Amino acid sequence: MLIGEVARRSGVSTRMLRHYDALGLVRPTGRTTGGYREYSDADIERLLHVESLRSLGLSLRDVGRALDDPSFAPDALMEKLIQDTRDRMAADARLLNRLQQIRVTGADDWPAVLDVVGLLRAVHSEHPAHRQRAALRAGEAGLSAEALTDALLAESDENVAGALRWALAQTPGALDQLAARLTDGDATVRRRVTTALTAIDDARATAVLEASLTDPDPGVRRTVALTLGRRGVDTAVDVLVELVAAGDRDVEAAEILATQDDNGGIVARLVDRLGTDPDPSVRLRLVQALAEITGDAASRTLTELADDADETVARTARAIGPFRSR
User: Fold this and answer.
1) 137: helix, coil or strand?
2) pTM confidence score
3) Where in the sequence is the domain holding 269, given as residue range(s)?
4) Which helix (H) or strand (E) element contains residue 30?
5) Up-side HSE of residue 6: CA atoms within 13 Å toward CB?
6) Domain membership flag for residue 53
7) Where is the signal peptide (predicted)?
C-alpha cells in the first residue's frame, strides 16, 4: 500500500507518515516494481500501534521505546501519564472556574474584564499585601461569593483573611457558598468557614451555625458556641458549659453564660456538669462560672458548695458568697 492510500485509510497525514519514516518509527519495508516505498501489513499494524500509544499521551520518543525496547516497562509510564492527565484536568477546572467567576461579575467590556482578571490573580498572589488590597476592592469589582470563598479557604494570613471575611459578608450569595463548605472533610476548612459565618449576623446565618454545634472538631464548636451565645441562642449553652469545664476560653464562655435570660436554667446546667467530677480544676472553673451569674439560684448553689469536699472549691464558694450578698 502506497503512502497516499495509507494516509486515506488511517487518517494519518502523508506529512506525518514521512515524519514517522524519518524518525525510524514506521518505515515502509516494501518496494513497488517502480521503486516506490510500499507499506506492508506489518507496517500498517505498527502504524496502528503508534497511533494507539500516541492517543494515550505518549511522546514519539516514548512510543518508539515502548515498541522497540523490551526492557521498557509500562507501569511507571502509565503512572506518569495518569498524573499528567490529572494535572491537565485540574488546570482546565481552574480555568473554567475563573471564566465562570468573570462571567458572574457582569463585566461587559475588555477593560472591565481585565480588571476582574487582575483582581482574581491578586487574591491568589504570593504577597499578602496584594491579596489584602484585592479583597478590599472585591465589592467594587463585583467579585463573586464563590471566588472570595475559594480565596478565603486558601488564605493563611489572618489580616488578609479578615479582609476577605469582610468582603464576603457584603457579597450576595456568600451564605450559600460558605454553608456548602461546612461538610468539608478538612477541619481547617470548616474552622475558616465558621469564622466567616460569624461575620454574617442574620437569622439564616444563625441557623446554619447551629448545625455546626455538633461538629467533631473542638475549634469549630468553640467558634460557633461563642458566637451563638452572644446572640442569645439557647442551643449553645451546653457547649459553652463544656468550654468552661475544659478551660477552653472558659472566662469568655462564663461571661456569655451570665448574660443569658434563663439564669436558673444556666445554673442547673452548670450544677449538673459539676456533678461528681473528680477533677478539682474542672470543679473550680465551674464554680467560678456560677459566680458570674446573678440571682437566687446561683447564690443558693454557692452556699451549698461552701461545704464541698474539695477545699479549693469550698474556699472559692465561701469567698464569693459574702461578696454576692453585699
Assistant:
1) coil
2) 0.62
3) 233-326
4) strand 30-31
5) 26
6) yes
7) none
Asked if 223 contacts 252 with a C-beta cutoff of 8 angstroms, the reply is: no
Task: Report the helix count and the strand count for the chain, using DSSP H and E.
Answer: 20, 2
Task: Establish if 68 belongs to a structural domain.
Answer: yes
Q: What whole-number distance in Å separates Cα of residue 207 and Cα of residue 40?
A: 74
Per-position DSSP letters for 197-240, written without gaps between them: HTT--SHHHHHHHHTTTT-S-HHHHHHHHHHHHHTT-GGGHHHH
17, three cell numbers: 507518515
Residue 55 lies in a domain: yes
DSSP characters over 108-123: -SHHHHHHHHHHHHHT
Whichever domain contains 47, its CATH number is: 1.10.1660.10
Written as one letter, the residue type at 114 is: L
pLDDT of 326: 40
Task: Specify the number of domains making up the chain.
Answer: 2
Q: Which residues of the chain fall short of a pLDDT of 50?
A: 325-326
